[in-house]
């Protein structure tokens, strides 16, 4: 399985257009050593030509421009993107669908809960009906493995994440199974497994077992500390209130990753306030010392 990181930042990207936190200001002015990053999305392929998008970020136009492999140019209008899987209905993971409208019909895989949000609070399914067949809905049962036509060796197993639906969801205050999922992706040809969880509010034994059995884990690296948004003055919510487990210290995701021997460990969905974005930070050095990679746009992994 080929994995290509289209975007590695959390919502807002890095730098966020209206933010002057030390990281955003630093990368904008070139005064810190850091790479700009677009909003999180990855692409998966078996053959290197046909790809499945995992989330469709608002930055997708730039991401696909930079990802030349996704344009095989076999005919006048063409794309290597065959399908889209949505992990939730958050704007930073779904608004890219609007940008893909010229390529409709597009196969979109998501849970019934996500489909409801995207047919009501943010009705992108309804809107795009007016573009050549629009978005073709394929339902993900959050408890059941599924396959996608044209990708015979890949199997997708959803894992239910406990987290709230977006503010515009009709069931924002009434959480349902399937509002948010992570994915276990098995490649039956190479016998390798990826665990992709860009939003992870907590790590329990069941997630630890999945990660032990995986060859690569790409997990939530949104925040270094739980109160980072408050500390940097950009927000009032804690990480866990937003469904993102912090990385550092006791109970942080790094303490769990340190218990794993098998998988390649990658943090993705990095918020622009996170000190690990500064390549000269002690936090970045700490991750390096523990063998944990920070995803960047254009990163490629083979499993
Ligand atoms: Zn996000
Ligand atoms: Zn910022």
TrEMBL record:
SUPFAM superfamilies named in the record: Metallo-hydrolase/oxidoreductase (SSF56281)
Residues annotated as domain Metallo-beta-lactamase: 51-270
A Gene Ontology biological process term: pyrroloquinoline quinone biosynthetic process
Pathway(s) it belongs to: Cofactor biosynthesis; pyrroloquinoline quinone biosynthesis
Pfam families: Lactamase_B_2
Alphabetic keyword roster: PQQ biosynthesis, Transport
Superkingdom field: Bacteria
Known function: May be involved in the transport of PQQ or its precursor to the periplasm.
Family stated for the protein in its record: Belongs to the PqqB family.
HAMAP family: PQQ_syn_PqqB
Protein name: Coenzyme PQQ synthesis protein B
Gene source species: Acinetobacter halotolerans
Gene: pqqB
